[in-house]
Amino acid sequence: MTFDISKISIPTDPGIYLMKDVDAKIIYIGKAKNLKNRVRSYFNKNQNYKTQKLVENISDIEFVLTDNESEAFLLESNMIKKYRPRFNIELKDQQRYTYLRISDEKYPRLLVSRRTRDGKFLGKGKTFGPFTQGSSKLLTIGALRKAFQIRICKTLPKKVCLEYHLGNCEGPCEFKSAQERYPTHVAALEEVLKGKNQTKIFTKKLEEEMQQAAKLQQFERAKDIRDTLIRLGSLQTKQKMEYVENSDEEYFGIGIQEQSATVMNFRMINGVIRDSDKFFFDLVGDNSFSNFIYQYYSTHKIPKFIFVSELPENKKLLESLLSEQSGFRVQILSPAKGKKKDIIDLILKNIKLIHLKGGDPGLVELKEILNLPVIPNVIECFDISNHGEDFAVGSMSRFVGGIPNKSGYRKFKIKTISGRDDFAMIGEIIKRRYYRLLEENSELPDLIVIDGGKGQLNAAMKSLESLGLNLPCISLAKENEEVYLPKNKNPIIIPKYKPSLKILQYARDETHRFGVSYNRNIRKNQIK
């Protein structure tokens, strides 16, 4: 039943809206200048298919008001990273950034803030970030600790250690004067961790305090402030050097195919293409090129120049937010000619190639039918091949872009199960496969397919849950080609003419063929 929008009071202020399902789980987060106008627009009849699917899942909407659209933009981005709603844009490499934590201790320490798989931060204290790999805000924890005289000892000693004698710590463990100054050092560090603009404000404030202390003939206080300014100056010099070495300009192209977007980028350093990535997201609600760029730069280093195939909406707001975040002026430009236009054209040519090859219509269809978070570009399919009670093996096929990737096929000797227990065997090989991928920090698939029915699927899900994984997993039963989903009691029947079913059948048949071949070889070797 569709959510009755007339039953709730919607403010007209700027802010964000959190759409929830029947289990009160947040499924989509959006922003708006006028919340009432934006939220009501979702319930118009002329929405695309994917937005209709979102609306069908809404059971409640919560609002958080902000003073302006800029604050709404920032809050939306942070809330998306926190809750990871399934209908929002989520970059696959969101773990490429770091958070720092100032611990909740008598004399706090500066630490990397670790996270659980569901995104919750471990440990008490104040968390700052995100900081990208090589971020000018992060530098190194060691440099920040030294600059602000932050202790590194896990347990406070009774006497000063080598760090004191090296001038990296004032020794709050032993000296009362150091204990009194320590909160000031921590407060200064917090200001710097809040951002580059805060660093400039903080530096100016320190300079004024130093001049005031000198006027009052508080020379020791003035000297301490001067030393802090020198350390800050050293950090800022490193920041400038790092920008020159690691960041130049970045190029983005976007291509729309039906109700999905493909974005590709080139990172240029000193005029040379050094890296490239591809991203996919659904055109649902406020999911847009503008939102993508902001999400992207919450996890990557911001360059001075961002060149795009088309200018994003809210361009000026986006430039302002990125400039504030980076501490320098950021420009978003769409080149009309010259070498920069040639690079954009090259990206768009690559996107067309992706749409022709990697963007298989069957994969797009699978994403919609199975309600998957991303297009299942990488599919891994599992089967058990039995021949009597003595010969049982597991097999796995791997499909990339809808076609077999035979170098990725895997076979398994059953090690812990005896007899003919297909469910337990599926559980064993699933656990072995993904335990190994986690150990090796290897790429996980976008979709797991099990040859079998509900029982085989349940066994696979138990193994994935035991590893703390929440990967999309389905089973395909041979008799009527029924597709089982973990939380659905009844199977999905995909029409036989659909390309999505053909991909599942191809993966299943390849897995079966590979497993039967392996089983046959084992029996031959046993006879010999």
Largest sheet: 8 strands, mixed
The pLDDT mean sits at: 81
CATH class of the largest domain: Alpha Beta
* CATH structural architecture of the largest domain: 2-Layer Sandwich
| Tally of separate helices | 15
CATH superfamily of the largest domain: UvrC, RNAse H endonuclease domain
Number of DSSP E strands: 19
Strand content: 15-25%
Uncertain residue ranges: 92-96, 132-139, 237-247
Distance between the termini: 64 Å
Radius of gyration: 28 Å
Structural class: alpha+beta
- Share in helix: 40-55%
Write up this protein.
There is one protein chain. The protein is built from 15 helices and 19 strands. Helices cover 41% and strands 22% of the residues. About 5% of the residues have low confidence. Strands 12, 13, 14, 15, 16, 17, 18 and 19 form an eight-stranded mixed sheet that branches. A five-stranded mixed sheet has the order 9-8-7-10-11, with helices on both faces. By secondary structure, the chain is of the alpha+beta class. It folds into four domains: 84 residues, GIY-YIG endonuclease; 151 residues, no CATH class; 108 residues, Nucleotidyltransferase, domain 5; 165 residues, UvrC, RNAse H endonuclease domain (Nucleotidyltransferase, domain 5, 2-Layer Sandwich), CATH 3.30.420.340. The longest helix has 29 residues. A hairpin with a 2-residue loop joins strand 8 and strand 9.
Characteristics:
alpha+beta; five-stranded mixed sheet; eight-stranded mixed sheet; Nucleotidyltransferase, domain 5; 19 strands; single chain; 4 domains; GIY-YIG endonuclease; 528 residues
